[in-house]
Design a protein that fits this description.
The complex is a heterotrimer of chains A (about 130), B (about 450) and C (about 475).
Chain A: E1 14-15, E2 20-25, E3 28-33, H1 35-41, E4 44-48, E5 55-56, E6 61-67, E7 71-75, E8 80-85, H2 88-91, H3 95-98, E9 107-111, H4 123-133
Antiparallel strand pairs in A: 1-2, 2-3, 3-9, 4-6, 5-8, 6-7, 8-9
Chain B: H1 8-18, H2 48-60, E1 69-70, H3 83-89, H4 92-95, H5 107-124, E2 128-129, H6 136-151, E3 155-159, H7 164-174, E4 180-184, H8 195-198, E5 203-209, H9 220-229, E6 233-238, E7 257-261, E8 277-281, E9 294-298, E10 304-308, H10 315-318, H11 331-369, E11 383-387, H12 392-401, E12 404-405, E13 408-409, E14 420-424, H13 431-442
Parallel strand pairs in B: 1-12, 3-4, 3-5, 5-6, 6-7
Antiparallel strand pairs in B: 2-8, 7-8, 9-10, 11-14, 13-14
Chain C: H1 56-68, H2 90-96, H3 99-102, H4 114-131, E1 135-137, H5 143-160, E2 167-171, H6 177-184, E3 188-192, H7 202-208, E4 213-219, H8 231-240, E5 244-248, E6 268-270, E7 291-293, E8 305-309, E9 312-316, H9 333-369, E10 385-387, H10 390-393, H11 399-408, E11 415-416, E12 426-428, H12 436-455, H13 458-461, H14 474-479
Parallel strand pairs in C: 2-3, 2-4, 4-5, 5-6
Antiparallel strand pairs in C: 1-7, 6-7, 8-9, 10-12, 11-12
Classes of the chains: A alpha+beta (about 130), B alpha/beta (about 450), C alpha/beta (about 475).
Chain lengths: ~130, ~450, ~475
């Protein structure tokens, strides 16, 4: 497993305590899991997606991510409606490991309330919480 | 006691290391008010020889072949088990090993189960089979729960010709989830009536058994089409897998899930347990499947090997969200079934199935000849219903005294079928035995 | 020090069944045909069955070779925590194979199956006596099915009291089957943490127990190998709010003849015959999970039940409040025979001795291995003890690495990464059938592995090297499942 200093934590994202990240992309928000989360889980074998069109509130469980020996729930960092899911992960779930912020994105949503973004952590705050976990 | 190797000297030496005076002191963390002070009231210990005598005497009270000719099926079938299969299954590396969680030292079990999964899938015409469930009844229950998970619906349609005890087990499993089970009645030809399905919406699955409890082969293709027209899953269950050595498979007829009892394949009846829950489905549903799965992979040297996989469905990882709570299954019985299927082979299975079919048809014919009614005209396998005259129970008793068990009375399960009996004749019933049976019931 | 058991030896490769054989071979003596072929509609017949055609020699070689790749209790020590891998007596295999038992149809007229009914009835009585409970069902086919039965019993009881409840307390040390079984019954598991002593405190239960909680599922001794010392207070607290205490009896091997669960507040208890009562594990089953209950839960037990009157036995379904059926017939009778024989072989004195020696063996291991492995709960243990890889993690050697290297020394590894409350848990349950010599060998081997973790850790990471196979690519197996050939 990586040391905190070895983790990639881009500046332009916001992070949830449950290790999801989110990034505004025009009208939509992209969501995935952080480098810390993928490192902890190990080789990802499967991602369970919601249906396009489903709506969730902030903090709701929207899917799961599986490694060989573990399952983790995925929680909405902000509330909204699913507009697309990353179907590339069906064939290549390993993208979550190799590229958690780019090709390993999971869902895109239309935010119910964009101001919820403010309640998420900045890169520095998230990094601090990770130090507390070790 | 030969299973307790410790000598007094060794016990003393170990107590010293642990730092207590005697064995009693090892239980210091058990509060006084939790300790049992008396002695357990159990019979005095028996030597191996006394045990043999005692259990021998108990076993001799049981009515079994060759002394008794038992024409009973109904979910438990008498088939010959080759000595080679019993011998191989007694190898202690198979018997005394645990679940293969450490694959490097369990490749024997893992390859054997992978082979079982493959042969089961081929037998049933399905894409993937699991490593076993407890029995045909719980397999049906799990299939229904699986269809509910997949479709998100809360109603299932279940044929009245599925084994009555399987339906009761399914009921027990479905009750807590508040699932509504609609019963599909049977027709006069001995097959399930499907009309009710048309009036139902929100069906998770339609389940029939084939060959059904009356021994008749269902029109699986039509059932499947009817179920799929309602966007529901099609479950075929079975109690006699040997039928699929001869008859069209559930998979070829559109089944989404095929499940049932595998006891016929090399597993002794043993009063109904341990049995073998066979379970197979389409590959697209595999992540919703209950039970263990063995997958082929490679080890770090690149050599082919086998490992338990997709374990995230199971209880030890998913806990309350698991596809089932099953942990221990019927692995050794599955290995036994694989040995049996391997021994029979493709043409052997066909030949044995055909022989079973012909034996049953012979008995049916002879009974018709002497004037008994065979009420259900549809083609069947291994068992059939015969209508005996009123008061047959006396004849039944008389036959028992002659060491013949004349099948299963249906009236406890189907009150409208008084004096109807379910008879079974497998490859283990000779022509002479069947002739004797016919002569005795006709007299 | 003696040589460790692990060595190399010639073990043969063996292909898959369908990679062998030749068309037309058969390994089965097809019975004599004495009836004519009957008419059969061609429309009903399947396409040809794609099974390999093998001779008996092919089949025997195949499975004999496969068996040599396995490690069983008969091969060597198998110290899996909470699995109770004790010796499986061979006389029981013979007894279960007696024709009168093995060849018996479950629907035989009652007068023709008295021996089996008596066996089941007597086994129920023995288990009730050993556990201090009032009534028993032998129907559940395994521990997990016993847990489901237990949950259904709880549910039925509460409904009959007019107080249906929706939650159940599940400790953090519980086996995964506990919350899974609870969920199957519609209960929401409420987690509760064990305290710093590794056991449940009465206060923690009091915090969560209310009139909407069906009760608690407790394993005693728990999966840390520790006796739940506060069990009586916990039971009182749960009962006070109208709840029931479900006991997971997987760890019964620690306390036979020492503690009777029924006497300390347990209302429902399941047992694992394939653990405590010596029936073999069979590579994953079959097992048997009887459930023992207090009198007030007897009306809800699954049917049919064996009733005895004047030494005649019958089966009765006359229990209107029954939870129903879990098994098509009566449960795993073939497994029950072996447990029955075991109890008759050992009887009260030796069952108690077995538990005491199991606890002695575990404490002996605890006191010797603590020199090299971190002991998270430094307290007397019961029949199993839990270590972790905290000392070794600093060198980036994990529990997994140590477990894999133990195989090269000729031992099946202990249970790893369970219970979840200990990171990198190593749960060791020797059982009473391991002699001091075997255990000393095991301890030496583990110490050698720990020394290697310091001096030559790559030996652990490459391990095992002496087994038929090396570490498997489990990621590929899960990403691209290949589940049939």
């Amino acid at each position: 497993m990586k040391e905190i200093s070895q983790l990639r934590l881009p500046d332009d994202l916001r992070y949830a305590e449950s290790h999801e990240w989110t990034k505004p992309e025009d009208e939509r928000f992209r969501i995935g899991i952080s480098d810390y989360a993928q490192d902890q889980l190990g080789d990802i074998v499967f991602v369970e997606f919601p249906q396009v069109g489903d709506a969730f509130k902030k903090g709701d469980e929207f899917g799961t991510v599986e490694s060989v020996k573990a399952v983790a729930e995925l929680y909405m960092p902000i509330g909204g409606q699913i507009v697309s899911v990353n179907t590339a992960l069906e064939e290549s779930p390993d993208l979550v490991n190799t590229s958690p912020y780019d090709e390993g994105w999971m869902i895109e949503i239309k935010a119910a309330d964009a101001s919820e973004l403010e309640s998420l952590m900045t890169r520095n705050d998230y990094s601090e919480t990770l130090k507390g976990l070790v | 006691m030969r299973y307790l190797p410790h000598t007094d000297e060794q016990i003393d030496a170990m107590l010293k290391v642990v730092g207590v005076k005697n064995l009693e002191d090892l239980f210091s963390t058990v509060p006084e008010d939790c300790r049992h002070t008396g002695c357990l009231n159990l019979p005095a210990a028996m030597t191996e020889w006394e045990l043999n005598d005692h259990l021998g005497a108990l076993s001799e009270t049981m009515a079994v072949s060759p002394e008794f000719k038992v024409f009973l099926g109904a979910g438990s079938y008498e088939h010959y088990i080759p000595a080679s299969v019993s011998y191989l299954l007694s190898r202690s590396e198979f018997v005394t090993s645990y679940t293969p969680y450490q694959p490097e030292m369990s490749q024997g079990t893992l390859q054997a189960i992978y082979e079982y999964q493959t042969l089961t899938a081929r037998l049933l015409g399905m894409e993937v089979a699991n490593a076993s469930l407890y029995d045909g009844a719980s397999a049906l229950a799990e299939a229904l729960l699986m269809s509910i998970r997949i479709t998100g619906r809360t109603k299932v349609a279940i044929s009245a010709l599925i084994h009555p005890l399987y339906r009761r087990v399914a009921q027990t499993y479905l009750a807590p989830a508040g699932i509504e089970a609609v019963e599909l009645p049977y027709q006069s030809n001995g097959k399930t009536a499907l009309e009710k399905i048309n009036g139902l919406d929100d069906l998770a699955a339609v389940a029939v058994q084939s060959p059904n409890f009356f021994g008749c082969v269902e029109d699986l293709r039509i059932v499947g089409e009817t179920a799929h027209a309602k966007d529901s899953l099609f479950i075929t269950c079975f109690t006699e897998p040997l039928a699929y050595g001869l008859m069209k498979t559930p998979g070829s007829q559109g089944a989404d899930i095929a499940c049932g009892e595998g006891q016929s394949f090399g597993i002794p009846r043993s009063l109904g347990g341990p049995a073998l829950g066979m379970f197979a489905s389409k590959m697209k549903y595999v992540r919703s499947m209950p039970g263990r799965l063995v997958g082929q992979t490679a080890d770090m040297d690149g050599k082919k090997g086998f490992v338990l996989t997709l374990a995230t469905r199971e209880q030890h990882i998913r806990r309350e969200k698991a596809t089932s709570n099953i942990c221990t299954n019927n692995s050794l019985c599955a290995v036994g079934a694989a040995m049996y299927m391997a021994s029979l082979g493709g043409s052997g299975t066909r030949a044995l199935a055909r022989l079973n079919y012909d034996k049953t048809e012979y008995l049916k014919c002879r009974l018709r000849e002497v004037g008994f009614k065979i009420p259900f005209s549809s083609p069947g396998f291994n068992e059939f219903v015969v209508e005996f005259p009123i008061g047959f129970s006396e004849t039944y008793e008389r036959l028992v005294k002659k060491k013949i068990v004349a099948g299963l009375s249906l009236s406890p399960y189907y009150p409208e079928l008084a004096n109807h009996y379910l008879l079974c004749a497998t490859e283990t019933r000779s022509k002479a035995e069947m002739d004797t049976f016919v002569r005795e019931v006709a007299s | 020090m003696n040589e460790s058991p692990g060595t190399t030896g010639l073990v043969l490769n063996e292909p898959l069944l369908w990679e062998k054989g030749k068309r037309g071979r058969c390994g089965f003596s097809i019975p004599r045909r004495d009836v004519e072929p009957a008419p059969l509609d061609r429309e009903l017949i399947r396409e040809s069955l794609d099974f390999p055609d093998l001779s008996e020699v092919d089949v025997v070689r195949h499975y004999t070779r496969l068996s040599t790749w396995n490690f069983g209790v008969d091969t060597g020590m198998y110290p899996l925590g909470s699995c109770t891998m004790k010796y499986n007596p061979k006389s029981h295999e013979k007894l279960a194979g007696l024709n009168g038992f093995a060849g018996a149809h479950p629907f035989l007229p009652l007068g023709l199956q008295q021996g089996a009914l008596k066996l089941m009835h007597d086994l129920e009585c023995f288990l009730a006596e050993i556990t201090g409970m009032d009534a028993v069902t032998l129907q559940p086919a395994a521990g997990a099915q016993g847990e489901l039965a237990g949950m259904l019993l709880m549910h039925a009881y509460h409904r009959s009291q007019g107080s249906p409840r929706t939650k159940i307390i599940v400790p953090d040390t519980a086996h995964g089957t506990n919350p899974a079984s609870a969920a199957l019954c519609g209960y929401r598991p409420i987690p509760v943490k064990s305290n710093e002593k590794g056991i449940l405190s009465a206060e923690a239960i009091a915090d969560v127990m209310d009139e909407n909680t069906a009760g608690i599922m407790v394993t005693n001794p728990n999966t840390l190998g520790l006796f739940e010392e506060n069990i009586r207070q916990i039971a009182e607290m749960v009962h006070a709010k109208g709840g029931l205490v479900y006991g997971d009896g997987a760890n019964m091997n620690a306390v036979m003849g020492v503690v009777r669960m029924g006497d300390i507040g347990i209302d429902i208890l399941h047992l694992n015959l394939h653990k405590t009562f010596s029936t073999p594990h069979g590579g994953g089953g079959p097992g048997s999970g009887p459930v023992c209950v207090k009198k007030y839960l007897e009306p809800f037990l699954p049917v049919p039940r064996v009733i005895e009157a004047n030494e005649r036995y019958r089966l009765s379904e006359d229990f209107p409040q029954t939870i129903g059926k879990l098994h098509a017939f009566y449960g795993n009778f073939g497994v029950m025979i072996k447990a029955y024989a075991y109890i008759l072989s050992l009887s009260a004195e030796n069952l108690k001795k077995a538990s005491r020696l199991a606890v002695l063996n575990a404490n002996y291991i605890k006191e010797t291995l603590r020199e090299v492995l971190y002991l998270p709960y430094d307290r007397p243990c019961m029949h199993e003890c839990v270590f972790s890889d905290r000392f070794q993690i600093k060198q980036k050697v994990t529990t997994l690495d140590m477990a894999k290297r133990l195989m090269d020394y000729g031992f099946h590894p202990p249970t790893i990464y369970f219970p979840l409350v200990v990171n990198g848990a190593i749960m060791i349950e020797p059982t009473e059938t391991e002699s001091k010599e075997n255990i000393d060998q095991f301890i030496e081997a583990f110490k050698a592995v720990v020394r290697e973790s310091e001096d030559a850790p790559e030996l652990l990471r490459e391990a095992p090297t002496k087994c038929k196979a090396r570490r498997m690519d489990e990621t590929a197996a899960a990403r691209r499942p290949c589940l049939a050939g």
